[in-house]
Design goal:
Length: about 160
């Protein structure tokens, strides 16, 4: 399973709801965990691997267990924000400070088909919001001022040509 990179139209499309959480979806989640371990990431969403389904996995360094989010909905975001440098496996080598909500509340289903609601803060909230954006066809670059975004895309394209 390969990671789709900037320029591929799939990254700009909305992912579709998963109707049935079965062995195929559980196997997909396992493959996605393997990708973030292999590529030293902390999260990845279905569209990044060409699977246009509403699923993402998160595995933050230092945490024993990763988390699977299927058909997630962001219920609340705090007014309190913070700025933190983000990168993306679909835009390798490009990093930028992005402002996001500090605390969020999310509802989703896990790989066993059980619904859950959780509150997250700090890095976990940031990663969840980043991956959720992928399900909506949004990239972290979209949160930047236009001139900054254009410079980073240019930098990425130059590096890709080399």
């Amino acid at each position: 399973m390969d990671i789709i990179t900037l320029g591929d139209d799939l990254l700009r499309q909305k992912a579709k709801k998963i109707d049935k959480i079965d062995d195929e979806i559980r196997a997909l989640a396992v493959q996605m965990y393997e990708i973030i371990k292999r590529d030293k990431g902390i999260g990845i969403a279905g569209p990044q691997v060409g699977i246009m389904k509403r699923i993402f996995v998160v595995q933050i360094e230092g945490e024993e267990e990763g988390r699977v989010f299927i058909n997630p909905s962001i219920l609340e975001t705090s007014v309190t924000t913070n700025k933190y440098e983000e990168g993306c496996l679909s835009i390798p080598g490009i990093y930028a400070n992005v402002i996001r909500s500090e605390i969020i509340k999310i509802q989703a289903w896990n790989e066993k088909g059980r619904p859950f609601t959780m509150e997250a803060s700090g890095l976990l909230a940031r990663v969840i919001l980043h991956e959720y954006d992928h399900l909506e066809g949004v990239l972290f670059l979209d949160h930047l001022p236009e001139n900054k975004r254009e410079k980073l895309i240019e930098k990425y394209e130059k590096a890709k040509k080399k």
